[in-house]
Amino acid sequence: xxxxxxxxxxxKILFIxxxxxxxxxxxxxxxxxxxxxxxxxxxLAYSGMYGTLQVLPFAPESDxxxxxLLGYDISHxxxxxxxxxxxxxxxxxxxxxxLRCNIAKLRNRAKQELSRxxxxxxxxxxxxxxxxxxRIKPPEFAKPYGIKFKxxxxxxxxxxxEIIQTKSKQILSRYVSNSHPGYRFVMKKNVLVSEALPNExxxxxxxxxxLPGYENxxxxxxxxxxxxxVVQSSIKxxxxxxxxxxxxxxxxxxLKKHYKEWxxxxxxxxxxxxxxxxxxxxxxxTSNLINAICNSLKTNNVYIQIKGPxxxxxxxxxIGKIHAIExxxxxxxxxxxxxxxxxxxxxxxxxxxxxxxxxxRSHTQNSVVWLxxxxxxxxxxxxxxxxxxxxxxxxxxxxxxxxxxxxxxxxHDHLPRPV
Length: 419
Description:
This protein is an alpha/beta fold. It folds into 2 domains: 2-76 and 255-417, 3-Layer(aba) Sandwich (Alkaline Phosphatase, subunit A), CATH 3.40.720; 80-249, no CATH class. Helix content is 28%, strand content 26%. It has helices at 32-35, 39-47, 62-69, 80-87, 123-133, 218-238, 269-278, 289-297, 309-314, 318-341, 405-411; strands at residues 2-4, 12-18, 49-54, 96-108, 113-114, 147-153, 158-165, 183-188, 191-196, 203-204, 241-249, 262-265, 281-283, 301-306, 346-352, 355-357, 362-364, 368-374, 399-402, 415-417. The strands form 5 sheets. The chain has an 8-stranded mixed sheet, sandwiched between helices. Strands 4, 5, 6, 7, 10 and 11 form a 6-stranded antiparallel sheet that branches. It has a two-stranded antiparallel ribbon with strand order 1-20. Strand 12 (262-265), helix 7 and strand 13 (281-283) form a beta-alpha-beta unit. The chain is globular and about 70 Å long.
């Protein structure tokens, strides 16, 4: 590789994030990315640039990873609940606490053991559950503070819980743990972040507690007691289901609007929230995603997150993850042909927000892979077969990046590039 320096990349940028694409291999296990048939991704990496990216030095949630990919310091992170609320159109109140909640299946109600495999809950059941949740009223011990509960529907099995305080001194605190066993709050460089945990067997509903250092804090003790009441009330109401809470938060992060020349195509609330805060124009993903991308690229750079691999990894389904990767490869190949037919010169960046392992069924702190291909580097005539396999192992021989460096490289030409 040689170095060519310019001030800015003049091509429009298409920044594609594949949710949970990568994972770690073992002596007896090749990753889905290593095994998948993906001629398009292989050729783009071979003809362009590639390497690894350490998104964050821990196993992040998707919102933390997106902030990092966009180049924002993790100190901006303020919690998942308030972002989820903002993403579905709720304006955060100064006297409220917000939680992201999951509707989860109970394997053993008496022991409060959760189903080991992610269950696809039918929409009719979710609608019924949501109606039942409105029956949960604040307990007697919360009445002196004028506590009110409000539940909001988010995407699929996701719920937002808004707890509002209308009387007396401030009594709500974000410094409480999750009832969801898959995530925990930890301090990283004096910043409270959420870390994904391996899915151990069996999994149980966690008791909400004040975070370390807040065990004797009146607000944290009260909030933990209140959330345990909500979780246990949901079990009584829902029978074989439970409402799992996580990401207690009160304030939105303050982000500099560095992305006014960008459009995000998404239907996920947390991505909408971060995009709005970063200055992006938000558009909903449509069934004809290729046309939506091409139309948006006429005026703006485009950021898009593609789902699929992450969900299969959480179920431990490596074959399903392989198929998801192959479908994405086919989609990107069709997209490139469309861009070529429209004579649109772009810089395409492809990476992942985090690794999600089929072995642990959870996010991990392993680095992710990336590639960059610029239509100006070669006269793009179409995808060709090549022997290169773009995966976690081969990318270790490429350029190693951290945090928001990939986005910086995408925007600028201060980088090594193929000649």
